[in-house]
């Protein structure tokens, strides 16, 4: 297939309408995107909450306390399992 002077191009109103609608959709999307960008530029920047040293220490202490509590629970469960095994084998 070669394109040249003698090439026939058949365009219907339907195909022209679809191409026009596609171009219109792209232009509308571009303008909408530009409007959203302009609006985002005007919005205030989110503030970064700074974590104070006291807050960090409190969270750290809470996490460590939770780990120790969990460790104690695991130790108790292991002891209970040992007792259950002893009773099972008797």
Describe the structure.
The protein is mainly alpha-helical. It has 2 domains: 11-43; 48-90. Helix content is 74%, strand content 0%. The longest helix has 37 residues, at 53-89. The protein is elongated and about 100 Å long. The model has no long low-confidence stretch (mean pLDDT 89).
Give the key terms.
90 residues, 2 domains, mainly alpha
Note the topology.
Blueprint: H1 13-42, H2 53-89
Low-confidence stretches: none
Query: How many strands, which pairing sense, and closed or not: the largest β-sheet?
Result: none
Oligomer status:
single chain
Count all strands and give the number: 0
User: Order of SSEs, N→C?
Assistant: HH
Q: Which of globular, elongated, flat, extended, rod-shaped describes the shape?
A: elongated
Q: How much beta, percentage-wise?
A: under 5%
Structural class comes to: mainly alpha
Give the terminus-to-terminus CA distance: 92 Å
Query: Measured on Cα atoms, how large is the radius of gyration?
Result: 36 Å
Mean pLDDT, rounded to whole units?
89
* Helix amount: over 70%
Summary of the model, kept short:
With 90 residues, the protein is mainly alpha-helical. The chain contains two helices and no strands.
């Amino acid at each position: 297939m070669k394109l040249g002077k003698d090439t026939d191009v058949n365009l219907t109103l339907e195909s022209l309408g679809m191409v026009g609608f596609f171009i219109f959709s792209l232009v509308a999307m571009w303008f909408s995107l530009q409007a959203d960008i302009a609006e985002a530029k005007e919005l205030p920047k989110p503030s970064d909450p700074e974590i104070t040293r006291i807050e960090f220490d409190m969270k750290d202490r809470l996490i460590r306390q939770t780990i120790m509590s969990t460790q104690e629970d695991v130790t108790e469960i292991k002891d209970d399992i040992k007792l259950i095994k002893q009773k099972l084998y008797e």
